[in-house]
Amino acid sequence: MLVFHLERLNIRDRVNLLGGLSEEEVKERLIQADIYFQPSLTEALSMAIIEASYYNLPVVSSYVGGIPEVVENNVTGLLSDSCNPEEYAKNFVRLFEDREMRIGMGNSAHSRMVKIFSREKEIEEWKKIYGNL
Predict the structure, then answer these.
(1) Residues 54-62, mean pLDDT to the nearest whole number
(2) CA 59 to CA 67: how far, in whole Å?
(3) Model confidence pLDDT, tens digit, residues 62-92
(4) How far apart are CA 53 and CA 67, in angstroms?
(5) Which residues contact 108 (CB under 8 A, 6 or more apart)?
(6) 132 to each of 40, 118, 121, how far by Cα in Å?
(7) What's the distance, Cα to Cα, between the start and end of the chain in Å?
(8) pLDDT range class, residue 57, cuts 50, 70, 90
(9) I need a surface site. Which of 12, 67, 76, 126 has the fewest CB within 10 A?
């Protein structure tokens, strides 16, 4: 389906479909990236966004499911309604044109992931739950 749409939109020469990558390859790609984009239609708590945020990437995504729990709009990334390519494009342009904002959001994303989604934080929360039993 993706290849069909790439051909239909005449963008096959500008998009690389990488297929499955190892954890190390994913890490390297995230370290090399400037922005993480996930145009979800539905989503639970996105581990991919958590991982990208951990690697200091601002996120461009949509207000669906658990994404707003991970991405704080205008702080750690930019969110818009799903299926809105014009808004996604505007968000990309904002981040590419304002390097300081892009880096600041990436740093805020990392700090948020360490504070809220770290293993230590998870253990702390589980101890609270079990302590109340």
Answers:
(1) 97
(2) 10
(3) 999 999 999 999 999 999 999 999 999 999 9
(4) 12
(5) 72, 75, 76
(6) 36, 22, 17
(7) 49
(8) very high
(9) 126
